[in-house]
Amino acid sequence: MPGHTFDDYRLYNSAKLIPAGSDIVFQMHYTPNGKEATDLPRIGFTVAKTAPEREYLTLFATSPQDPKSFAIPPNDPNWKSPDAQGIFQQNVELV
């Protein structure tokens, strides 16, 4: 996301675990604004010396994708998206 700085999972005694041999994929999305620009994306990692207390997971819930449920009427400035739900199978801490 534009202007996104970084995520520091150490604040939660946590870590995102990246298994050995994993591919890391970057998705860059740009919106044209009529001006030429240069982007300098950077990535950094903190390698833990000990195992974290917990694993930090990022989950996304999306609205239904079928056209019947997700049909934005033309020129509707106040359209409400259908609700998205998630069910956890064990206790979690939301951050």
Structure explained in plain terms:
The protein is low in regular secondary structure and 95 residues long. Helix content is 0%, strand content 4%. It has no helices and two strands. The mean pLDDT is 81. The two termini are 18 Å apart. The chain has a two-stranded parallel sheet.
Supply database-style keywords.
95 residues; 4% strand; two-stranded parallel ribbon; little secondary structure; 0% helix
Strand order of the largest sheet: 1-2
Low-confidence runs of at least 5 consecutive residues: none
- What is the global morphology? flat
Strand content: under 5%
Task: Label the structural class.
Answer: little secondary structure
**Sheet having the most strands:** 2 strands, parallel
Number of helices: 0
Q: Helices, strands, pairings?
A:
Blueprint: E1 14-15, E2 54-55
Give a summary of the structure in a few sentences.
The protein has 95 residues and is largely without helices or strands.
